[in-house]
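Structure (tokenized):
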């Protein structure tokens, strides 16, 4: 028996690319730009959004500070707010027998309202 080889004309390069993409529907996942987009979305959702939310919560808490609120500063001082100066961004705390002037931004947490009347 004789075997014959039938010669075919090679397909054009564009047809090869189309055939390759048609065979592999997940070819987009290997694209480096796609990976950069995925990493960008991950960074935005895990780092940027929580930081924005925390900054917004901190600003809301500072704007809500009023006389009689029991607060904790970043240095660990616990005191009761005596006065709040909005224009100068400072407040006065009373802790035991002393009065302290601190910046509003140093307040970390509000513990609630003091039950006793604040005396100046």
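Design, position by position:
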């Amino acid at each position: 028996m004789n075997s014959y080889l039938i010669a075919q004309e090679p397909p054009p390069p564009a047809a090869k690319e189309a055939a390759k993409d048609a065979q592999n529907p997940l070819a987009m996942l290997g694209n480096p730009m796609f990976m950069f987009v995925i990493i960008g979305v991950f960074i935005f959702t895990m780092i940027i959004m929580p930081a924005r939310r925390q900054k917004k919560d901190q600003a809301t808490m500072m704007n809500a500070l009023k006389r009689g609120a029991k607060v904790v500063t970043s240095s660990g001082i616990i005191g009761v707010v005596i006065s709040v100066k909005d224009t100068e961004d400072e407040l006065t705390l009373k802790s035991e027998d002393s009065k302290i002037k601190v910046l509003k931004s140093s307040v970390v947490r509000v513990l609630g309202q003091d039950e006793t009347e604040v005396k100046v």
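Reviewer-requested clarification: Residues 32-63 form the longest helix (32 residues). The mean pLDDT is 81.
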